[in-house]
Write a structure and sequence with these properties.
The structure is a homodimer of 113-residue chains.
Chain A lengths: L3 E9 L5 H14 L3 E8 L5 H4 L4 E7 L2 H9 L1 H13 E10 L1 E4 L11
Antiparallel strand pairs in A: 1-3, 1-4, 2-3
Helix pairs in contact in A: 1-4
């Protein structure tokens, strides 16, 4: 079964203290076991015409679509979403089964003893 | 040093044959060694008001910002970008050092022999 990703691309309102939002998000994913990985980043390289004003990307990975659906309805997620919706100026969210078409090579085997 | 991600969120023009685009993209990342992983997906769950018309996400990972910058100028990337820009209706691109704040647990050690 494919892993399932919840991708959030956001632009925050002016004056928002991002550290508080990030702490809340880190606590959320740490509390909820079905989130198997969480990565995020702040754009530093894209061209303005490609970035379209968005500044941050957040990516959560779940073992399956069912686990993602359970996350959506989790009280802690609902509570966080309420807060999050108040600090964003605009957002794009995509939720999709992951197609992995290139993955890092496994580390080379240890040399023979 | 942080891994670096190139995230592309796109909506394609009507009538575009996506398989051809995907084959081109898979060939690109397979040809260029500095792309250490490539994942993509087509949204199946997000709400219209959150999806904003975007349908696909593409995520390439590089070992470093320098490797990403080299990719940007690579002739094969420039050639592909030219084709890609003709099939998209709209796009958001974010390029960022990855902050990994939750990662899958490593597999348990093998039982003692």
């Amino acid at each position: 079964m494919a892993e399932f990703k919840h991708l959030v691309v956001a632009k925050f309102k002016e004056g928002v203290v991002l550290d508080e939002i990030l702490s809340g998000m880190e606590k959320l994913v740490s509390d909820i076991e079905s989130v198997i990985s969480f990565q995020w980043g702040e754009d530093i390289e894209s061209l303005d015409m490609l970035r379209q004003g968005y500044t941050h990307a957040f990516m959560m990975t779940f073992k399956s679509k069912d686990e993602f659906n359970a996350f959506l309805g989790h009280p802690k997620h609902l509570e966080f979403s309420e807060t999050f919706s108040q600090v964003i100026e605009k957002i794009v969210v995509l939720d999709f089964p992951v197609v992995l078409s290139k993955s890092p090579s496994p580390p080379p085997p240890p040399p023979p003893a």
